[in-house]
Amino acid sequence: MIKEREYKKRRELLLKKIPNSSVGVIFSAEPATRSHDTHHPYRQDSNFYYFSGFKEDNAALVFLKSKDETKTVLFVQKKDKTLELWMGERLGAREAKKRFLVDEVCVIDDFEKKFKGFIKGKKNLYFELNSKKSSVKKVSKWTKDIKIRHDIVPLVQKMRLIKSAAEIEMIKESIDITAKAHHRAMKIDKRGKYEYQLQAEIEHEFKVNAAYSDAYTSIVACANSANTLHYIKNEKPLVEGELILIDAGCEHNYYASDITRTIPVNGKFSEAQKELYNLVLNTQLRVIAMIKPFVKRSHLQESAEKLLTKGMVELGILKGNYKKLIKEKKHKKYYPHGIGHWMGIDVHDPAPYKDVKEREIPLQKGMVLTIEPGLYIDKNDKSVPKKYRGIGIRIEDDILVTKDGCENLSHHIAKTVDEVESISFQS
Q1: 109 and 212, same domain (yes or no)
Q2: Has 247 been annotated as catalytic?
Q3: Which of 143, 160, 177 is the last residue of a domain?
Q4: Is 355 annotated as catalytic?
Q5: CA dihedral 33, 35, 40, 46 (to 10 degrees)
Q6: What is the Cα Rg of the chain in Å?
Q7: Does the active-site annotation cover 176?
């Protein structure tokens, strides 16, 4: 777990980044309605959690900076026995002050009065400028006299780009649980089952290993379903002789994992499946080997496109000179997405890819990103040899940039043809 002093260091670092005569505020997430008067399980706002570790709603975190003082104030919901009877126990201001290393804890009922006092004489306001939270809209009305208004979100997102040692451990724990889930999917007998039943096996493994939530809606896509990139219906049968693309990761202690494996329903790849699979796999391995500080993601993307396009020419999927094909973007029909994304508290961590001058940010030690090349060949694409039609393959791992290279944090999840076949149930 991340210790309170790390959250305190993050708050202190943010305060160093803003000028004197400033007030900043971040609000907790608001409960999400599922329908009428029922709600989705509550999940804290990622930026709020990053600075506090506080998991309750109806909360706010205020940052104050003057020439002579810096201060953080946490606002929480007061203890209320009637409300807690229906909605669960609350920590309350007294216990929050004991647990969290903030300068002051107040009840949220006093927020308006105290916040209006905080902003008196301040020149700068930092808040979630484009947020739709109701609390943000109120703050915007209260602070019309403050002319210098900044969006606090880009500051936070830039901080989240580099992971601490504790964060990396959290991500590793999440990946270890996800590894068990993917291996379970490989090992079980899939005959006569549906995609949603395999999804249930995967998410069962998340929950029995203390990851009560998935990091995103799992994709379990058999056969041509895999050629829909964001396929989440998971409603079709698992067909003998076909592949299943499984993109599934859990969230554990608020940190995500994001893993994709493509496995055969009957436990054994056909020759055509193997050819496409090894093309994607070899591309992924070569791209991962390129990762180190100062390398740019665009270089990884270009390398993946080059390798996949050359391979598709060799297999007869594309025809012509691979350089010309890339220039004409012919490969995009079969590989339309990026090589990967940042990952952390959010599965698609919203950290920046470019600096304020729109220059690409090169890789640095402590960044975590996914590497996920793929090939997607629709069953009705008659320009492609018949044996490859209807096959969709993606292979994705979570990679930590280290001092002089990288570490594949999910290396222990079976991936090669031999590894997958050796642990798979074969019908």
Answers
A1: no
A2: yes
A3: 160
A4: no
A5: -30
A6: 24
A7: no
What's the pLDDT tens digit per position in 224-233? Answer: 999 999 999 9
200 with 288, same domain: the answer is yes
Q: Is 37 a catalytic residue?
A: yes
Q: List the CATH number of the domain containing 120.
A: 3.40.350.10
Q: The domain containing residue 43 runs over which residues?
A: 4-160
Catalytic, out of 242, 247, 346, 397:
247
Determine the Cα–Cα distance for residues 93 and 55; give it in Å rounded to an integer: 14
CA angle 137, 39, 345 (to 5 degrees): 70
Whether residue 297 is found in the same domain as residue 363: yes
Q: Is 40 part of the annotated catalytic residue set?
A: no
Q: Catalytic site residue 412?
A: no
Clarify whether 109 is annotated catalytic: no
194-247: pLDDT as tens digits? 999 999 999 999 999 999 899 999 999 999 999 999 999 999 999 999 999 999
Whether 230 sits among the annotated catalytic residues: the reply is yes
For residue 150, count CB atoms less than 10 angstroms from its CB and return exposed for 0-12, middle for 13-18, buried for 19 or more.
middle
The reply to whether 394 belongs to the active site is: yes
pTM for this one? 0.96
Q: What is the pLDDT of residue 212?
A: 87
* Catalytic hit among 43, 286, 299, 348: 348
Q: Check which CATH number belongs to the domain holding 196 and give it.
A: 3.90.230.10
Average pLDDT, integer, range 102-110: 97
